[in-house]
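BUG: 3D viewer hangs when loading the predicted structure for this chain

Environment: internal workstation, default settings.
Expected: structure renders.
Actual: progress bar stalls at 90%.

Input used:
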Amino acid sequence: MEAKLRKSLFTLAAAAVVLAGCGQGPTGGGDAASRQQIRIVGSSTVYPFSRAVAERFAQANPSFAAPIVESTGTGGGLNLFCGGIGPQYPDVANASRRIKASEIEQCNRNGVNQVIEVPIGIDGLALIESAQRSTGFQLTVRDVYAALAANPFGQAQTARTWRDVNPALPAVAIRVYGPPPTSGTRDSFAELMLDPGCNTDPAMQALKESDEDRHKQVCTQIREDGAFIEAGENDNLLVQRVSENEGAVGVLGFSFLEENSSRVQGIPIGGVTPTAETISNFTYPGARTLYIYVKGEHLAAIPGLREFVSAWPQAWGPGGYLTQHGLVPLPDAQRQAAEQAIQAVKPITAADLQ
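Structure tokens produced before the viewer hung:
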């Protein structure tokens, strides 16, 4: 009963701060101090981790308004974050990939010069299928690329089944549910699986040397004939669709796989199954670092922002509560560096990303 009451109070507090924020749109005036709640946007993958920290923070710090966490996708979140300084712009952006130099430049053009990068842990970009399949897929990055590229290896896409891609695979129709272009997971998918799969062909490696733009197009553009189905930013809906459709494949963060292990299972890539161990040691091809980006200009203006950011190190270690949500801890040295980044408030620059 007490737990339900706490949950209800938290929900009411969150609703109250949402209402309090109404009217502070793009034309809203004032400085960041006129908003009393922390606003967080970005990655659907990082969303459950950020929400968990926000809930713990609200419970432990009743003097501060409950943070608002929105799932907008990494690209969409960073676009909002980099829009400017003031109450109408978010304080924190969740990201399932590293910020791009072009995004830092966008921030700088809009007066956001103190972008603090904080790696929070490791997640795996997992391929999943229904747990009901007794004989699951065994794929390679080349198989994945050849099945989903718009023009695999520079040729017209003709594959309709997985067997068309690789004779050793079953004659099951290619039907893959995945993230939209605004998602950091989509960017990670291109970087960690499509590009390496493309580069298994020596001709594609040579193309990268001679024409990098053409290489990027051939290696990362996804087919649009219905074989790849954009599932939006709702990873729970993606899990549902894959679990209910035997033969379908999904692309999403490892944390959602762990949470739904009774409904879906991980697909081995190159003989390596996505697990906490294979992700932490980066032997699984889809292992990736997750981030939050904090607006340094807002640290002194938004009540509780500095304290909220400082709460993350208590959550992300091997014994931290975020491991219960599927976050894989960073190695000790990287966790210490991340904590130092919070304390030092040292901005990242576009040059740091070159």
